[in-house]
Amino acid sequence: IKNIVQEMQLVKEIRLVETLFEELGKDNGLIAYGLEEVNKAIDFGAVKDLLVCDDFMLENREESEGIMQKTEKMKGNVHLLDAGNDAGKKLASLGRVAALLRFKIG
User: Fold this and answer.
1) Which 3 state secondary structure label does DSSP give 74?
2) In degrees, to the nearest 5, what angle opens at C-alpha 47 toward C-alphas 93 and 89?
3) pTM for the whole structure
4) Which residues are CB-contacts of 78 (< 8 A; sequence separation ≥ 6)?
5) CA-only gyration radius of the chain, Å
6) For position 30, what pLDDT does the model report?
7) Of 3, 8, 62, 63, which has the most beta carbons under 10 Å away?
8) What span, in angstroms and rounded, lies between the C-alpha atoms of 5 and 51?
9) Across residues 6-31, what is the average pLDDT?
């Protein structure tokens, strides 16, 4: 059962990151990446899904907890990704923090 849960989590992470890169390719303004841009999106209440690499969280615990709490207060979903798998590595290429947005902020 543990392996099934882990596989389901990995599939979910991969889907989120694929969606993130699809939106990036569309250049429609519905993603934010990097801490500064993500923080701005959170302040606008635009974050639907926040993606954070677990290694970023460990290295920047206070900032990470702050953006995760603000996202949840704004009814956004928080996803902590394993930096060691493919989804986490792809997210790392965008600064280890990114968000899918409800609307453009910019």
Assistant:
1) coil
2) 20
3) 0.93
4) 50, 52, 68, 71, 72
5) 13
6) 97
7) 63
8) 19
9) 93
**Which tokens hold the place of 46?**
């635009």
Percent of the chain exceeding pLDDT 90 equals 89
Give the distance, in angstroms, between the CA of residue 91 and the centroid of all CA atoms in the same chain: 8
Q: CA 72 from chain center: how many Å? A: 13
Amino acid of residue 50: L
Structure tokens at 76: 């956004």
Contact (Cβ atoms closer than 8 angstroms) between residue 50 and residue 78: yes
- For 3-58, strand residue ranges (E) read 31-33, 47-53
Which of 28, 87, 74, 9 lies closest to 48, judged by CA?
74
